[in-house]
């Protein structure tokens, strides 16, 4: 077969990413050559492909679901917010410019052409391309320049499924309202609905489903039940929640506190820590929440200097310094590592010039205009480590500093720019053993937990949900043949 479809949503975090991943895994299990695609993604959670391109981490997860290597074509445009008004525009994996909303308009036609070319290449190579929308297709203030939702669907002739999250409430209003706000030309491509995260008795939902079908002339192609499938890479901090801890494995619990920075990036680094039985990971924003933590983590940041100022404004800098002085474990990753250094010279990201760091590691930082994008490999604790790097800040450690991956260590404080390092099972267990020893905890990591195997099992669980609860035959017909002709136009206010 040959085909494509677009999975849109009534809101951000409605479930587009995980349903796209579930469809990719379900199709791959059937022997279909399938690829994910998201024309434009706004996310601080990114990944580096084998050839050094930066894409959204969700698309890398979806590629894993499809059983293929991720590529820049799967997410040709990535927007990385550095403030409330400006974002870095990454095109085909490389930074293009830092712009505000007005400045972005100057690039729109060029970016639309690039996105369509990427989709065309994927459609030529794969049997099916499952596209994911961005935000909501009913953001009517942005429709004229849209390249990720109905603008993409219209340009590529894609049938559209609209996903609504019933757990948020108001799902029928949001599904109907999304459709009613679209033009007749856009509505003609909306071929059905999917309701996500349903809890309760299915028969209670049926009257609403019947009325939605009657009002819109479109089928509900499935109701996915609420299911905890942890470890699926969310796109932004809207979907950020404490990772689900597995049952304890002997000994005591090891407690990890991750500082939730305003511009936190690549927060999925800690998912692998939470995959260890007995490790409890939580996000914190105040000094008191660090008190009982065995390990405090400063994660990545898209705005290192600004987030460092936020840290100081909350008194978290003093709490972290006290931990280090007492020999209690602290870890900084990428932007968090930069904060732990003595000085940060930034004329690129913030333009702040020379800024004093926390001074807990014997290193200094200088921001470069060219972004480092790499897939490094190394050894730590005698175990192999494969990871990825995404940063402008270049850290220079003192010649005599104790190395840690590409970074350094001073007593109970570690710093590295490597993302994804804890997905390496042997290294993760060795690191946690040392953290536990320094924290005085009776904790021993389980000897046989494979993060890769856990992620594969979670992707299979998503595919199982798709197979059991969606009308997969109808979805395949839509992907291959497009939306059926003659779908009715639904004007705003039609229910009244």
UniProtKB/TrEMBL annotation:
It holds the Pfam family GATase_3. The active site is at 334 (nucleophile), 419. Pathway: Cofactor biosynthesis; adenosylcobalamin biosynthesis. Residues 6-227 form the CobQ/CobB/MinD/ParA nucleotide binding domain. Keywords: Cobalamin biosynthesis, Glutamine amidotransferase. Residues 255-426 form the CobB/CobQ-like glutamine amidotransferase domain. It comes from the Bacteria. Coiled coil: none annotated. GO terms for biological process: cobalamin biosynthetic process. PROSITE patterns: GATASE_COBBQ, GATASE_TYPE_1. The keyword Transmembrane does not apply. One of its GO terms (molecular function) is catalytic activity. Belongs to the CobB/CobQ family. CobQ subfamily. Catalyzes amidations at positions B, D, E, and G on adenosylcobyrinic A,C-diamide. NH(2) groups are provided by glutamine, and one molecule of ATP is hydrogenolyzed for each amidation. This is Cobyric acid synthase.
